[in-house]
Design goal:
Largest sheet: 9 strands, antiparallel
Number of strands: 20
CATH topology of the largest domain: D-amino Acid Aminotransferase, Chain A, domain 1
Helix content: 25-40%
Number of helices: 11
Number of domains: 3
């Protein structure tokens, strides 16, 4: 069976998750990408073809003119969900509804849909020039309409700040459409789901700790085996309104006084190595399950999730621009029953600007065990025993 996997740059989710899972399932894989050299370096044993994957027409043509009939078209990229959905529909294959992928990707359309269906209403407006809408509620959040990874997401406290910040973003990213929306207070969580269009499983979620305002960098995440049932049902109702229910979905939401409100929907598996942690923590073939749904196989009624796990992820983060001169190497060890996996995201000698996004991550620490306080202590001790030094 032939899997066509659409990708931009290589990611841990693909190279360490989906490609090994496809191999275990016995699938022949063709990666379609606009960065073929990068994928050939990270996955030298996989067929890689160059393609303008942002254009669904180019994707359909590349598959049609290749010498292998598709059995599944799949992507884990935020940017390519609609293209993959349209290509799968064209070839009559299982896949996500392209309207749902569009609503998830387009943050303004998501707000309109939630309002139109009556499940939630958040003040929002789109701008293409540095102006402050007259009725904007302050503080409010400014972000790209189709952005990812908290890039150019900022809290603004008044009209002058909004104009200044929007001009900075538009100068860097000409032609970008920005969304200004009401700031939603509350604790930030995620909900991780997996569905086949009929059955939907809730895998759990995370509590997310952010950097101080005005930016929204995710600095650490703690696993939540199950949110309170009323909270989960509120989030699922909003996903239903968006038409989201096939394959993996990573939803970010806040809870304030018992009310759950979606921040954004990433219609894919959670990234930044959280998916790799989930597979280990829940003791399930997570990546295989996701691929099977795109092959048209129904999910089991019971995934057999392990429910006694505790986990924490820490993201050592650059606080300045400069050259990384000292950092720990990749490490894997078990201390007091806590399994610790550290993976560097930058190597000593690399020089970077300060991005105010997860592109500032220097590495990822995954800690898993069965007791949260022991896991937290193990992660804290690892971080205290190592240093990351950046010189201007």
């Amino acid at each position: 069976m032939r899997l066509y996997l659409l990708a931009l740059n290589p990611t841990d989710s693909v190279t360490e998750g989906f490609l090994p899972a496809a191999a275990r399932l016995g699938l022949d894989v063709t990666v379609l990408t606009d960065q073929p050299d990068a994928h050939r370096r990270t996955s030298p044993h996989v067929e890689v073809l160059e393609c303008d994957v942002r254009d669904f027409r180019a994707v359909i043509t590349r598959i049609s003119t290749h010498h292998h009939r598709p059995d599944a078209v799949f992507t884990n990229s935020d940017h390519l969900q609609t293209q993959a959905a349209l290509a799968a529909a064209y070839f009559g294959l299982p896949g996500k509804d392209w309207r749902a992928t569009l609503r998830a990707k387009d943050k303004a359309e998501m707000r309109r849909r939630l309002t139109d269906t009556g499940v939630d209403s958040v003040w929002s407006a789109e701008i293409t020039e540095p102006v402050a809408p007259l009725d904007a509620p302050y503080p409010c959040v400014l972000k790209p309409r189709e952005g990812v990874a908290s890039e150019d997401v900022v809290l603004v406290d008044g009209p002058e700040d909004l104009v200044t910040r929007s001009k900075e973003i538009l100068d860097r990213r000409p032609g970008t459409v920005l969304v200004v929306e009401e700031y939603l207070p509350g604790e930030l969580f995620t909900l991780e789901t997996l569905g086949d269009g009929t059955v939907r499983h809730v895998l759990g979620g995370f509590r997310t700790e952010l950097s101080p305002p005005p930016y929204f960098i995710e600095e650490r995440m703690v696993f939540v085996p199950a949110h309170p049932e009323p909270v989960t049902q509120q989030v699922l109702a909003q996903l239903d309104a968006l038409g989201v229910g096939f394959g993996a979905c990573h939803t970010e939401f806040v809870v304030h006084e018992g009310r759950a409100r979606i921040i954004e929907v990433n219609y894919r598996a959670i990234g930044d190595q959280c998916d790799l942690l989930l597979a280990r923590l829940l003791d399930v073939p997570l990546f295989e399950h996701i691929l099977r749904t795109h092959l048209g196989e129904p999910l089991p009624a019971d995934l057999g999730l392990r429910r006694d796990g505790a986990a924490r992820l820490e993201y050592p983060c650059a606080d300045r621009a400069g050259t990384l001169v000292e950092a720990p190497a990749a490490t894997e060890l078990t201390v007091d029953g806590v399994h610790l996996t550290y993976r560097p995201l930058r190597e000593p000698g690399e020089r970077h600007a300060l991005y105010r996004t997860n592109r500032d991550y220097l590495g990822v620490l995954r800690a898993t065990g069965t007791d949260q306080s022991t896991v937290d202590r193990g992660a804290a001790e690892f971080l205290a025993a190592h240093s990351w030094e950046i010189r201007p």
